[in-house]
Amino acid sequence: MGKIAKIEYFRVPPRWLFVKITDEDGHIGWGEASLEGHTQAVEGCLDAWAERYVGFEADDIEHIWQMCWRTSFYRGGPVFMSALAGIDIALWDLKARKLNVPVYQLLGGKVRDKLKVYAWIGGDRPGDVEKQAQTRKAQGFNAVKMNATEDIGWLDSPSKLDAAVERLKTVKALGMDAGMDFHGRVHKPMAKQLAAALEPHRPLFIEEPLLSEHIGGIKALAQVTSCPIALGERLHSRWDVRPFLEAGCVDILQPDISHCGGISEMKRIAAMCEGYDVALAPHCPLGPIALAACVQVDATCANFAIQEMSLGIHYNAGSQDLTSYTKNPEVWNVSDGYIDLPKGPGLGIEVDEDMVRELSKDAKAWVSPGFIGPGGEIREW
Questions:
Q1: Measured between alpha carbons, how far is residue 330 from residues 138, 261, 341, 342, 350 in Å?
Q2: Distance of alpha carbon 90 from its chain centroid, rounded?
Q3: Which tens digit of pLDDT belongs to each residue from 217-235?
């Protein structure tokens, strides 16, 4: 046993927030609390919890999780749960490193030796997908994901959907699978048309076909399309996930480990999904710590399907990438659509603390982009 001696956080480019916990015996663990566009808010939450939880037993991960959740009165939501995720992931890393085992050994052990993965192509305004998909294929990927549309009006010309179909056909012609991310930017009058247009071309899944607040619309869409529906990055706890499972309107659940309370809560969400025959495909366009944490949970889940990776994602352009901030980036090497399960202790990555500290100096908080329509109206990004 060892009490928490220090909780630190580091804002680093391109848009990530790392957490380091040190116990009184010098054991350390790393977590990731990245919440794109809301970095300062998460930092404020971490400031409060750093004062509160120093002195708690670092091994008591579940106790600390429940203390954060149940003694806060106002709880849940992206900011709160991202801060909690950073602490939770770091505590799991610390404990497993101290015991010199991978985190997955503390979660019941692995059920697979390698993990199916996919990467992004196309950017926020999707284009040039053939060249980018060929690059991904050369990197070892068999599957990719791209935004289905640019910004689009609440009711727009049906012709605006034609390009999405052509992009999907282009990628499929290369022998690759492709998920189509509606990104919550497509509203109901267009979403039902887009799902129907894509369906004959068999996307791997359609993601966030409507925003999560429109569960009735998602349920209605699920009843008229055979495309697998994926969502979950904006659901932040098992209580947020439950109504979607009960409604039978999701086929692939995509919780984000940095937004849903960390390893502890993702493992619980995965178990709930298994009970509803729903696949697990964690959302992770973030940094290496978040991905490493996802991998540890993926390894233990029978219903795991595929893992998102941020390698070369457009948000990282001109900055740091997934292979930054660690001393063993080779763990992310892709072969025939898979990565091997890391074998090292803790999260299986070795964080380059010197690099983290250096690049955190004067790091700017990332600001979410937005879209403005031709009439000056705000559109969903």
A1: 16, 27, 12, 10, 11
A2: 17
A3: 999 999 999 999 999 999 9
Which of 27, 236, 259, 283 is labelled catalytic?
283
| 373 found inside a domain | no
Question: Could you give the 3-state DSSP secondary structure of residue 30?
Answer: strand
- Residue 301's CATH number: 3.20.20.120
* Distance between CA atoms of residues 315 and 306, nearest Å: 21
Query: pTM here?
Result: 0.97
The pLDDT, as a whole number, for residue 38 is 98
Of 47, 75, 101, which one is at a domain's C-terminal end?
A: 101
* Predicted pLDDT of residue 25: 97
Does 306 map to a domain? yes
Q: How many domains does the chain have?
A: 2
User: Catalytic annotation on 283?
Assistant: yes
% of the chain beyond a pLDDT of 70: 100
Is pLDDT at 77 greater than 90 in this prediction? Answer: yes
Cα(118)–Cα(374) distance, integer angstroms:
34
Residue 30: CB atoms within 10 A of its CB come to 28
Which of 27, 38, 183, 201 is the catalytic position?
Answer: 183
Q: Which of 286, 332, 331, 278 is nearest to 305 (CA)?
A: 278
**CA distances from residue 128 to 134, 149, 194, 195, 218 in whole angstroms, order as listed:** 10, 13, 20, 22, 30
Rounded Cα distance between 311 and 214, Å, is 31
- Find the range with the poorest average confidence among 66-70, 109-113, 124-128, 257-261: 124-128
CB proximity list for 325: less than 8 A, separation 6 or greater:
12, 18, 287, 288, 289, 351, 352, 355, 356, 359
Q: Is the peptide bond before 189 cis (omega within 30 degrees of 0)?
A: no
Residue 214 annotated in active site: no
Average pLDDT of the chain is: 97
Answer yes or no: do 323 and 213 share one domain.
yes
- Residue 68 belongs to domain spanning: 4-101
Residue 88 is part of a domain; what is its CATH number?
3.30.390.10
Residue 128's pLDDT is what? 87
What stretch of H or E contains 11?
strand 4-12
Residue 28 has φ and ψ, to the nearest 5°, of -130, 160
